[in-house]
């Protein structure tokens, strides 16, 4: 299986692409700028807002001094964020409707209302009820108002200290896991009545009474529009999508539904893309073991997406923070300790806000998003040390970097990518979107690895 992860055949830039002729030795041109990055790795965890994880990080655009989020079950009393020392949290609803309530026209004060309306967390409606003492804050706040610090997530804060933290990384859309993961690899989310016809697709988050489709079987491809792997395949650029070992939930159905050691179909939409099937690229959907082996041997693909199991994902009520941080640290350590570190950038993010409080209103760019802020980190030997990137970013910026590094700037644009679909917005080219290259100093000597204890305790 690791054979599918061989390095890309993408070429280094010619002198006209930015390399200095004086750097040429033995017919080879020294790489410059983003062409020093031969490997891009994207780790995507689940359901945390920026303020929830990084709202107290020094220098970041974090939690304001005065916050008033009314509690509708307590007479509209103002509630403030509080330090949540528990590593198992209960989040809130994170649908498009919940996002609208949370954002409340830019006031960012509907987070408790969403939880109370959901009526699935009795401690939110009655914080004094039996068994709720450890599930609410000192004012009776539900856990969506909690935040964590270095005390609970030391490794994430250590990465921010030494590399780059993104404090305006927005989820790509104001909805849940599946749309976010569709955006991660295709800059779009939609419903296609004809699974074999990209032009039948229409934009959708699966709300308003309709549901986003998932593959009904191993041959079904409900995502007929174009994803980034199609362009990578056409250009001969290697990629891998790494998930937990075991059934991938598109092979018939998961017989172990609810098992926490699986990567769900929501986290792994790749088998459902028509392009992936037609191009014979499902072999590039690999396991965590394959990733660790490739990192150790120096055979990382050019583009890697690494998805946790649901139990590792930090999804509230399904996994604790310690288990998720352990998984992330193991992936980062393996990458840093391998031969490919000097030519790699690792990006770590969370797929949506999970109902947790954040104070920054998301930017509206089209009918599908952006969504509420999520944490974002970048680790690379060329990362600026302790850099806080306050550009407006979302997962579209990942695609933009992939396209600029490996595809000559070709976008997921149905007018130019050779595969028409009905999209009207090229998200990577939106003026509001920042450029991830601002986080790098490609003139510095490569930074050494930062190997951390996966279980800092």
Low-confidence stretches: 1-28
Predict the CATH topology of the largest domain: Alkaline Phosphatase, subunit A
Q: How do the helices and strands follow one another from N- to C-terminus?
A: EHEEEHHHEHEHEEHEHEHEHEEEH
Strand content: 5-15%
Q: Order of strands in the sheet with the most strands?
A: 10-9-11-1-12-13-6-14
Q: Give the CATH class of the largest domain.
A: Alpha Beta
Number of spatially distinct domains: 2
Distance between the termini: 35 Å
Helix content range: 10-25%
Shape assignment? globular
Average pLDDT confidence is 90
Give Rg in angstroms: 22 Å
Number of strands: 14
**Overall CATH architecture of the largest domain:** 3-Layer(aba) Sandwich
| Assembly state of the chains shown | single chain
What class, by secondary structure content?
alpha/beta
Biggest sheet overview:
8 strands, mixed
Task: List the total number of helices.
Answer: 11
């Amino acid at each position: 299986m690791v054979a599918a992860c061989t390095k890309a055949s993408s070429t280094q830039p010619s002198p006209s692409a930015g390399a200095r002729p004086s750097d040429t030795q033995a017919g080879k041109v020294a790489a410059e700028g983003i062409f020093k990055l031969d490997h891009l790795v994207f780790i995507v965890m689940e359901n945390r807002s920026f303020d929830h994880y990084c709202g107290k990080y020094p220098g970041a655009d974090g939690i304001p001094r005065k916050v008033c989020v009314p509690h509708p079950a307590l007479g509209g009393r103002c509630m403030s964020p509080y330090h949540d020392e528990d590593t198992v949290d209960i989040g809130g609803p994170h649908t498009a409707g919940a996002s609208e309530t949370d954002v409340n026209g830019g006031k960012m004060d509907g987070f408790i209302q969403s939880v109370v309306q959901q009526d699935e967390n009795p401690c939110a409606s009655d914080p004094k009820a039996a068994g709720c003492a450890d599930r609410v804050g000192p004012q009776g706040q539900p856990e969506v108002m909690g935040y964590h610090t270095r005390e609970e997530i030391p490794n994430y804060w250590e990465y921010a200290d030494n590399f780059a933290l993104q404090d305006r990384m927005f989820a790509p859309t104001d909805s849940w896991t599946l749309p976010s993961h569709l955006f991660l690899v295709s800059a779009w989310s939609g419903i296609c009545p004809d699974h074999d016809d990209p032009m039948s697709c229409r934009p959708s988050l699966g709300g308003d009474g309709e549901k986003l489709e998932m593959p009904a079987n191993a041959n079904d491809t409900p995502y007929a529009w174009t994803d980034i792997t199609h362009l990578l395949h056409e250009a001969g650029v290697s990629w891998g999508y790494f998930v937990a070992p075991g059934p991938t939930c598109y092979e018939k159905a998961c017989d172990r539904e609810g098992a926490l050691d699986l990567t769900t179909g929501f986290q792994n939409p790749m088998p459902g893309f028509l392009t992936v099937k037609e191009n014979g690229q499902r072999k590039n959907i690999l396991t965590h073991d394959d990733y660790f082996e490739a990192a150790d041997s120096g055979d990382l693909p050019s583009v890697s997406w690494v998805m946790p199991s649901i139990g590792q994902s930090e999804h509230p009520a399904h996994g604790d923070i310690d288990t998720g941080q352990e998984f992330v640290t193991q992936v980062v350590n393996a990458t840093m300790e391998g031969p490919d570190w000097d030519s790699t950038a690792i990006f770590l993010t969370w797929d949506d806000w999970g109902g947790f409080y954040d104070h920054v209103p998301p930017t509206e760019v089209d009918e599908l998003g952006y969504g509420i802020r999520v944490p974002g980190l970048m680790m690379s030997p060329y990362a600026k040390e302790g850099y806080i990137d306050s550009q407006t970013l979302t997962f579209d910026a990942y695609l933009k970097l992939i396209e600029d590094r490996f595809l000559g700037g070709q976008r997921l644009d149905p007018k130019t990518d050779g595969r028409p679909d009905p999209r009207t917005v090229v998200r990577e080219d939106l003026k509001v979107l920042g450029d991830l290259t601002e986080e790098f100093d490609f003139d510095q000597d490569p930074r050494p690895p930062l190997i951390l204890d996966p279980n800092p305790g």
